[in-house]
Specification:
The structure is a homodimer. The first copy, chain A, is an alpha+beta fold. The first copy, chain A, contains ten helices and twelve strands. Chain A folds into two domains: about 130 residues, PurM-like, N-terminal domain (60s Ribosomal Protein L30, Chain: A, 2-Layer Sandwich); about 150 residues, Phosphoribosyl-aminoimidazole Synthetase, Chain A, domain 2 (Alpha-Beta Complex), CATH 3.90.650. The radius of gyration of chain A is 20 Å and the shape is globular.
């Protein structure tokens, strides 16, 4: 079996140059030179087999996901990713698996302009931790805490697709089914996030489910919201698949879309984003999250956002 | 069982203030404002039960160790720690275990001036990843790559103690035995590392064993070294415990001492360190690491530094 140093040399050391990366992989630590007049955003997420992805999940998809979930957090802060750190615990060092994993990881790293600057490889039950450092203009980071009464609640893309895709994947559907693909290869909304940094009053990425994540915004902002089911975006594929698509849109996780709030006077600016945006409701001064159906009746989801420690996933 | 958010709220959210930490735990990411005229050093290490610490290891010691191994890397770069990120995979959320783990982690965090700024809690086989961001004056970071022929090879403290301590621990010795304590509570050489940033030509922390880690310095520096067994520091406790203490000093891991090289004209400055320092040999232009016994004969260790993927630990 190859050793730790050999694994890093063979699979994770690529020619990557960046004037801000003074020392990269291979020393006790990486040395970075932050850009002046910028703040740094640091995000980190661990994914574990059987919890955050199915037991049988392609190595390339795991590599992609480990980075994607972090880039999504970077996007939600309105930042641009710069450097990633990869901590990989492996049961065994299988060269084919490592090559595929690195392939998935680096394909997203390269398209997003993220450099792998360090990490650690250990033996243990498979889990992957990625930490990403991004940058944002000084004081421009967008938190969960700024939503104000009257702001519109918006969401990018078509959440719910990934949850349906996971169901299909587990039922044996083809990897290339559009919903399965949405689960396998989430596309972090990096460009939209950066644009929204100057526009949104609060932002979060939808990882646990739209209602659960919007709930975090409301808690941090000390506000409430009213959401209209009739305004929820539903993809054609999801409408085709699900009898009650709103369940998926509101409670399905793993989409990595952005949910954000924007005041009326800046709503026009949202149209410039590079993706679909739906206005799904408004922020209220009154606390609590109300979801209303087409008849104005309180709508109660059967599914709920999941907490890694409480509910199994899929 | 408490949920992820509850775990963070109860055990890991402490009142910590720092003007450079604009957003801490509780948003999609942390927002930091780097100090002007400084570079950042980023280190990350994962520790796994049964690999990096024994199956039965106190939760407080695991919390301490997860941070200590990273602070040791920060020290080896000559940097000062600022912010830590903690990714915790847990089989179950046991409140007593979490309280003790957090106690060990924060006791070292507080004494080293490190703020917990973010992280992730997931369910899975126990493993702990910590990432630390430190700072160092611009261009002052000390890498493994600067050793030059003629430089003295030095080491702090008394390496080998921790390996002996692990043996004793596994044989049922008391937690407070001085060698066991050296394994349980490694003290990262932060102050020495910062002082050495302007003095040492190359530096590394001794985690895999003195010979193995010095080997990394030689490889990065394109040089060789001659080490004299008679010059190795041996603690009284190790001399008492081991028949062949040099084996422990040269090949034992987990000490987190600093090994560094220094030119003759700066040797005087090393005396100002806050810990014992031993000159154990010199850097040679000729490649290769030679270890000579008191009679000038080539000395071959029976034990070797360990690679996480090749050898079991203890």
């Amino acid at each position: 079996m190859p050793g730790e140093f050999q694994i890093i040399r063979e699979h994770f050391r690529r020619k990557q140059r960046d004037a801000a990366l003074l020392v990269g992989i291979g020393d006790d630590g990486a040395v970075l030179r932050p850009r002046e007049d910028h703040d740094l955003v640091v995000v980190t997420d661990t994914i574990v087999r059987g919890r955050h992805f199915p037991e049988r999940f392609a190595a390339a998809d795991i590599g992609w996901r480990a980075l994607a979930v972090n880039l999504s957090d970077i996007a939600a802060m309105g930042a641009a990713p710069r450097f990633a750190f990869l901590n990989l615990a492996l049961e065994e060092a299988d060269d084919n698996w490592l090559r595929d994993f690195a392939g998935g990881f680096f394909s997203l790293a390269e398209q997003s302009g993220t450099l792998l600057a360090g990490g650690d490889t250990v033996r243990g039950p498979l889990s992957v931790t990625v930490t990403v450092i991004g940058e944002v203009a000084r004081d421009a980071a967008c938190t969960r805490a700024g939503a104000r009464a009257g702001d519109y609640v918006c969401v990018t893309g078509t959440p719910g697709d990934a949850a349906a895709g996971l169901e299909l994947l587990q039922a044996g559907a083809d990897d290339e089914h559009p919903l399965v693909r949405r689960f396998r290869r989430p596309e972090p909304r990096l460009r939209a996030g950066r644009t929204l940094a100057g526009i949104a009053t609060a932002m979060i990425d939808v990882s646990d489910g739209l209602l659960a994540d919007l709930g975090h915004v409301l808690e941090a902002s000390g506000a409430g919201a009213r959401i209209e089911v009739s305004r929820l975006p539903v993809s054609a594929a999801l409408a085709d698949h699900a009898e009650k698509p709103a369940e998926y849109v509101l409670a399905g996780g793993d989409d990595y879309e952005l949910c954000f709030t924007v005041p009326e006077e800046r709503l026009e600016a949202v149209k410039g984003l590079d993706c679909r945006v739906s206005i799904i409701g408004r922020i209220t001064a009154e606390r609590g999250l109300r979801v209303l159906d087409a008849n104005g009746r309180e709508w109660r989801p059967e599914r709920r956002g999941w907490d890694h420690f409480r509910n199994a996933h899929g």
